Sequence to fold (294 residues):
Amino acid sequence: MTRLITAEELKQLVAADVAVVVDCRYQLSDAAAGYQDYLRGHIPGAHYVHLSKEMSGIGPATAGRHPLPYPDNFAQLLGRIGVDQHCPLIVYDDAGGQMAARFWWLCRWLGYDRVRLLDGGWQAWLAAGGAVSSEVPERSEAVPGYDLQPDMTLTADALRHLVAAQECLLIDARVVQRFRGESEPLDPLAGHIAGAVNHPCADNLGPDGKFLPVAQLREIFTTLLGDWSAAQVVHSCGSGVTACHNLLAMELAGLGGSRLFAPSWSGWVAEPGNLYQQGSGGDGPVLRVEAVTG
Fold:
């Protein structure tokens, strides 16, 4: 199944009322802004899903700033917005898919495969002349079943082992400045997990805010992977959100099977078992967190 949908294709689904549409607009700097934007106007029939309240759960600091939700809770959310194993599910945001990719990944984590991301998001919808509504649809009380895919993620202990044994390629989706440790607006320490390589998720997009062509994505990621297989790749970011964008981009490129380290940097630096030391990256000094060995 294709992972993306165009605005023109979505217009047909909305007109026929045969899809569940989810609005994931969200700003890390202002948690209320996305919902306010939704109330001002959204794709007709779209349900709003909040990153912190509904796409995240509650957990210790080691689970990161946006812990994965409990599977039962997320399944109940899907039921409330009318999702079942048969209806098409479309998700969008206004950030090139950086927030919507988290919802896409969570659905896949629960074994729900009929989910697609609107390429170009809200901006593409408006540019295509899509209708805009301020009506908030009702939610139901249905609770669909799910088939959790636990192998899509891994624990900090597992990552420590893989990093120490050099048995995985860890790809960090954050912007270069945060990866290098030159700035850190959200977490208490700056830097990256030792051994990680950087591929900012925004690099998956073209100037129009849409994903790059499949052939171009495949060239980018096969070059990045080198001799690593897709199954050996682990994705990370600040809190397990934008890492899903890189995971989606790899799937678009035909490189499926990579995994998510959901706690990401925010959870990693909260782990007392990790050793802090000053290191030197390829572009200057950064504060890295080395895996404890022995």
Summary: The longest strand covers residues 275-281. The chain has two domains: 4-148, 153-290. The longest helix spans residues 214-225. Residues 4-148 form a domain with the Oxidized Rhodanese; domain 1 fold (CATH 3.40.250.10).
